Each structure stands twice: as C-alpha cells, then as structure tokens.
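Dear colleagues,

As part of the handover before I leave the project, I'm documenting each prediction I ran so the next person doesn't have to rerun anything. This entry is a single chain, and its sequence is reproduced below.
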Amino acid sequence: LQASPFIFSRTLDADRVLVALDQPAGRKTIQVFGLFADGTTLTDGYSGQQATVTGGTVTLTTPDRLLLLSR
C-alpha cells in the first residue's frame, strides 16, 4: 500500500490486518487506505492500544516502530 514507511495489508476471508513498519516511536498517524471504514475501532496487536478510524487514518502513541492493526 505504501513503500516508505512500509505499510501493507493481509486479508483472509473477513479477517483483515494492516501492518506498518519503520514508524516513529511515539505518536504516529497511519493511513488505512480504505481497508477499514471511518468509525471502526482498531487494536494494535503489539501495544494493545485502540484507536478509531477518522478521515481514513488512525492515530496512536506507542513506543514501538511496528504496528499490527486489526478489528
């Protein structure tokens, strides 16, 4: 979906994840590329933090440089 920083998705039936690599530590805003609709609450599999998709993006503050976002 995006080459730099690298963002890709994986889908299996109704299950979808968005993986964002090489993100900055701290606050980050990630575009979801229409994979998840506005109003969808996503959970980062590494930090456990949740964020709601707004305007096609989610914003989280984590110490990690990697996000694994899913519903």
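The mean pLDDT is 96. Residues 15 and 70 are 8 Å apart (CA to CA).

All the best with the project,
I.
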